[in-house]
Design goal:
heterodimer, A: mainly beta, Cathepsin D, subunit A, domain 1, 1 helix, globular, B: alpha+beta, 4 strands
């Protein structure tokens, strides 16, 4: 499935896509930057709160970010829908995510989809791995 | 190809904000995702659901190193 890059300005594009996550409140569409350098998918805790997901029940870990700082993250299994596929994914929730958008990292996603960045055509392809 | 209102010109005026979306329409917007969701729920009432809450990225958001590595538990 092809997803267009998000246009931030003239000549500026980024692989930001949409997916759905499920909580007690049902399904909710969210955005995420596909970050092949991230070990985990990390959402801001506000999305967990909206969906009634008690993220504090997840496994607490610390992740190192680019400047060497540590990010406290709670990882738990959450049902997601991406590219017409529904599956359980390890999602990290953090209060300290310093960007407005969520990050879609390798665990549960790059091992399920072949993800191909096509910067020339500003598209990202997600193909289910068999 | 996947399409979403986030990728339309309509969303551009909300750069740096969160938008709550239902039926491809922006129902509420603001700087706090939870407040935007609650406001949208109030506006929509019990008949319709908030289908998505999206952050509309702005150019300065990408001047960030996004790499995150697992280090400790």
């Amino acid at each position: 499935m092809r997803f267009p890059y998000f246009q931030l300005g003239p000549g500026d594009f980024a692989p930001i896509i949409t997916l759905k996550i499920r909580g007690k409140e049902g399904w909710l569409g969210v955005e995420a930057y596909i970050d092949s350098g991230a070990s985990f998918t990390i959402f801001n805790v506000d999305r967990a709160d909206i969906l009634g997901i008690d993220y504090t029940k997840g496994k607490r870990i610390h992740l190192t970010v680019g400047d060497g700082g540590l990010l406290e993250v709670y990882i738990l299994k959450v049902e997601v829908e991406l590219a017409n596929m529904r599956f359980l994914a390890d999602i990290g929730f953090s209060k300290q995510l310093g960007v407005g958008f969520n990050l879609l990292g390798r665990k549960s996603f790059f091992d399920r989809f072949q993800i191909c960045f096509d910067d020339k055509h500003r598209m990202v392809d997600l193909d289910l791995l068999r | 190809m996947a399409k979403n209102i986030l990728f339309t010109k309509k969303a551009k005026k909300y750069e740096g904000q969160y938008i709550a979306v239902t039926k491809e329409k922006v129902v509420a917007s603001g700087r706090n995702a939870k407040e935007v969701f609650q406001l949208a729920k109030k506006i929509l009432g019990s008949q319709k659901k908030v289908e998505g809450v999206y952050y509309v990225p702005q150019k300065k958001d990408l001047l960030t190193a996004l790499c995150v590595f697992h280090t400790s538990s």
